[in-house]
Design goal:
By secondary structure, the chain is mainly α. The protein is built from 23 helices and five strands. The strands form two sheets. It has a three-stranded antiparallel sheet, with no helix packed on it. Strand 1 and strand 2 form a beta hairpin.
Length: 539
């Protein structure tokens, strides 16, 4: 303690005040309270972080618990003891999850694509938006092709399918192999333009062959019929065209656009509710898969190869393909641009949501030299339209599931996967696990079973890598458009630098008034010289 100085001595009073003021700096009295406050603040931060990532933690815990339960039952010999009826009951919670995911495919496809296509007004976008959409379309197609190529090359599900060969799958395999390429292509076009939209919600067109004997010769006759399976491709094309037509109507179509947007928002709420049930369904799906497998090590090896395909494809597309496209058009170092958005990429990996990363990505690209009117115009469109990572993951997963079920993919089916993955990215939800919903759409398009239990088990990891690639593609698109705008500005000023010469009168001319072009400055002739003068370029 410091004694109070006499009131009449101002010098001692000032000295005492300085001493007293220095005491809290040396020995603060409220250290325990401050320490308690900091610990409380840190605990609140931890609790807030846990609450924000609760669904991810529950999903990971469900996967671990499902693996432990399945391995425990396999070690105890319960796989043999469980008869088929008990196995069905054991896998029933997981079956409910798959049925709920299939339930929302139809409203998700129609409403999201109509709303997404109607929000893209060509007159408002102009040439800048057209170039952006072209870039997003090309990069999504490239990522889809890369995903299919990696999955066909590495074959993550081939070894597991060879172990689980069953006689039930062989007849469809032979029938699919005997289908001619021309008929497959014509069926693809027929499904793009369905004759009945209602029947397209649960049936698709397919050409089959019937052997008939004509004049003692066995002839293969084509028979076209409707088969069970949603015609996703026809619904996708109709929804996109219908959305464009609603935008063309102008104010008269706004009411219907708001209706489909509201239905889409309600569907997203339903999706969020379903995802809270997902940990329970994933637990029993993983456990039942492990119980059914004779060689569990082969299952984990196939899943590891599937994760490797996805992560390797994301790395190739994000570190090679996109930077090469950026360098080819701008002749600038793409990795310096990539380093400038590293904070937004880290946020995308943590949140697993491209929509949540949008504000931070705007700040990062603006620090990289992108103007505000470009970043705030293009990045929201990219967050809705550009889904490079999700398209690559969906193509890998579709080929993986086809290999698991021993169903060959011909050229037409591969084209169908590429087109569906690219078209489904229009208006797709930028939320966690949004790619799994689109995967179910792609599986329906190529008549594959929507058995995504193994995909759901590792989606919490793959989905984060997808989000990083999605937002990276948006950022590179903004950088390319900024370069395009800068180049247009330079080209508009170049003609003023060529053959700019004006005739002057005999009398000396006054100093010309410039129109704000920094590349031009006047060159005045010497005094007494009444000849012509030229504008000289600073360049």
């Amino acid at each position: 303690m410091v004694a109070d100085p006499p009131k009449g001595d101002p010098k001692r009073l000032a000295a005492a005040e300085s001493i007293v003021n220095s005491v809290p700096a040396l020995a603060p009295k409220e250290d325990p309270d401050a320490a308690g406050g900091s610990s409380c603040c840190s605990w609140n931060q931890v609790r807030r972080c846990l609450r924000a990532n609760l669904l991810v933690l529950l999903t990971v815990a469900a996967v671990v618990a499902g693996v432990a339960l399945g391995l425990g039952m396999s070690a105890a010999g319960d796989a043999v003891a469980l008869d088929p009826s008990r196995m069905v009951a054991f896998a029933f919670p997981g079956e409910l999850l798959l049925r709920m995911l299939r339930m929302i495919i139809l409203p998700l496809v129609v409403c999201s694509l109509i709303g997404g296509a109607a929000s893209l007004d060509p007159s408002a976008l102009g040439r800048l938006g057209a170039w952006a959409l072209l870039f997003f379309l090309v990069t999504t197609l490239l990522s889809s092709a890369l995903g299919v190529s990696l999955a066909l090359a590495l074959q993550p599900g081939a070894s597991l399918a060879a172990m689980n060969t069953s006689a039930e799958i062989n007849p469809p395999q032979e029938e699919a192999q005997s289908k001619e390429v021309l008929d497959s292509f014509l069926d693809l076009l027929r499904n793009i333009f369905p004759s009945n939209l209602v029947s397209a919600a649960f049936r698709s067109y397919s050409t089959t062959y019937v052997k008939e004997t004509v004049n003692g010769t066995e002839v293969k006759v084509r028979v076209g019929s409707e088969v069970e399976g949603m015609n996703i491709l026809g619904l996708v094309v109709f929804a996109i065209v219908f959305g464009v037509c609603l935008r063309k109507l102008g104010p008269e179509g706004e009411l219907l656009i708001r209706f489909f947007n509201s239905v889409n928002d309600a569907t997203m709420v339903l999706v969020s509710w379903i995802m809270w049930y997902a940990p329970v369904g994933i637990l029993f799906l993983v456990a039942s898969k492990i119980v059914e497998m004779e060689d569990v090590g082969m299952l984990f090896a196939s899943l590891g190869k599937y994760i490797l395909c996805c992560l390797l494809g994301h790395a190739i597309h994000g570190l090679l393909v996109l930077p090469l496209i950026y360098f080819f058009f701008t002749r600038k170092n793409p990795y310096r641009f990539l380093w400038g958005i590293i904070t937004a990429l880290a946020t995308a990996f943590g949140t697993s949501s491209s929509s949540a990363t949008l504000p931070l990505m705007m700040k990062c690209v603006e620090k990289n030299g992108v103007s505000k009117h470009i970043s705030r115009f293009i990045l929201p469109i990219g967050a809705t339209v550009n889904m490079d990572g999700a398209a690559l993951f969906q193509c890998v997963a579709a080929v993986f599931i086809a290999q698991l079920n021993q169903q060959p993919l011909d050229f037409v089916k591969i084209i169908t996967i590429l087109v569906t993955a690219t078209a489904s990215s229009v208006g797709a939800a930028g939320i966690p696990a949004g790619g799994v919903l689109t995967l179910a759409i792609i599986l329906e398009a190529v008549n594959l079973p929507v058995d995504i239990s193994l995909i759901l088990a590792v989606d919490w990891l793959v989905d984060r890598s997808c989000t990083v690639l999605n937002v990276e593609g948006d950022a590179f698109g903004a950088g390319l458009l900024q370069h395009y705008v800068d180049r247009k500005k330079c080209q508009s000023s170049v003609p003023e630098l060529i053959n700019v010469k004006s005739e002057s009168s005999v009398a000396p001319l006054p100093e010309p008034i410039q129109e704000g072009n920094p590349l031009l400055k006047p060159y005045l002739p010497p005094a007494g010289d009444a000849d012509t003068f030229e504008k000289e370029s600073v360049m």
